[in-house]
UniProtKB/TrEMBL annotation:
Topological type in the membrane: Single-pass type I membrane protein
Localization per Swiss-Prot or TrEMBL: Membrane
GO cellular component: membrane
Primary localization class, coarse: membrane
SMART domains found in the cross-reference section: EMP24_GP25L
Protein name: GOLD domain-containing protein
Residue ranges occupied by any GOLD domain in the UniProt entry: 29-142
PANTHER family reported in the protein's UniProt record: TRANSMEMBRANE EMP24 DOMAIN-CONTAINING PROTEIN
Keywords assigned: Developmental protein, Membrane, Signal, Transmembrane, Transmembrane helix
Length: 208
């Protein structure tokens, strides 16, 4: 089975609310990957065209191959999961066609929302029903969640900045030590070469 991976970096896809659509060739696999920090809600909705005698499966997993969501022979449905740790997550759609059949491509539509976008605050949602919130309180709740998400993003950015600064300082120190070591080696080699040549010329009585 051939495998095709769509690696979308810097939240190009997962943080958009618009759905994406592509053609899934027979007996192939296409995956979408994204890095997410811990405790993030992810909600997805998919739709796959039906082809008699063929099937499409999907699987959601992390970098350690832990399965977060999975279903075989899909046509239309939804999935949700919450990340436990900062990791790279991927969702793969897999086409399976029996060897005796001539395969036809499936059209796959996928809409993924992350974080605040994954929560539905409109109308009689489960959030409003569970908390019995009034419209104003519901809007305040949405703004509160949005503020928390922004704070988490800034915290993550600051942590990455600190890690990059530590890495730069460590790299600079290593380069400095390597430069000093190289200079010492060159000076030692030059001194040894001068002494060796002096002994050689004295042995040949070319110099006194």
């Amino acid at each position: 089975m051939e495998t095709y991976t769509l690696l979308l970096v810097l939240s190009v896809f997962w943080h958009y609310t618009d759905a994406i659509m592509w053609s899934l060739a027979p007996n192939t696999q296409k995956c979408l990957k994204e890095e997410l920090h811990a405790h993030v809600l992810v909600a997805g909705e998919y739709e796959v065209t039906e082809v008699p005698g063929q099937r499409v499966d999907y699987i959601v997993r992390d970098s350690k191959d832990n399965i977060l969501s999975q279903k075989d022979t899909i046509t239309k449905g939804k999935f949700t999961f919450v990340t436990d740790i900062y990791d790279t997550f991927e969702i793969c759609f897999i086409s399976k066609v029996p060897p005796e059949r001539r395969g036809i491509s499936h059209d796959v539509t996928l809409d993924i929302k992350v974080g605040i976008e994954a929560k539905n605050y409109e109308g009689n949602t489960w959030i409003a029903e569970a908390a019995k919130l009034k419209p104003m309180e519901l809007e305040l709740k949405r703004l509160e969640d949005l503020s928390e998400a922004i704070v988490q993003d800034f915290t993550l950015m600051r942590k990455r900045e600190e890690e990059m600064r530590d890495t730069n300082e460590s790299t600079n120190n290593r380069v400095l030590f390597f430069s000093i070591f190289s200079m010492v080696c060159l000076l030692g080699l030059a001194t040894w070469q001068v002494l060796y040549l002096r002994r050689y010329f004295k042995a040949k009585k070319l110099i006194e």
